[in-house]
Amino acid sequence: MEFKNVVEIIEKKSKFLGYLLECKSETEIKQALEFLKKEHKKATHICYACRLKSPFYEKAVDDGEPSGTAGRPILSVLQKKDVSDVCVFIVRYFGGIKLGAGGLVRIYAKTTSELFKQK
Prior knowledge:
By secondary structure, the protein is α+β, with helices and mostly antiparallel strands. Helix content is about 35%, strand content about 30%.
């Protein structure tokens, strides 16, 4: 599995690993998710959002985080940057300190933005 960019951000002892995948199909996204699940067996969450151009497809997944605090902020960054045929996965290792809904939204959006700064 080849990811375009990878970033790591530590926030209040939680580790967030962001992965940017250029892809053309839902199958590629599912394969990448399975790969990350095997690589990060002890991760608390693997949240993601993707946008495909043809056929048009958008998806945002919170993977156990409070509803709307992970997948939506990732997807929002993808929409604002007007990118398609990409999927951003963010792997979270919980550090023991709750970030709250606002904190989660900020860190997921920040991690996604950092992936695009490397491009």
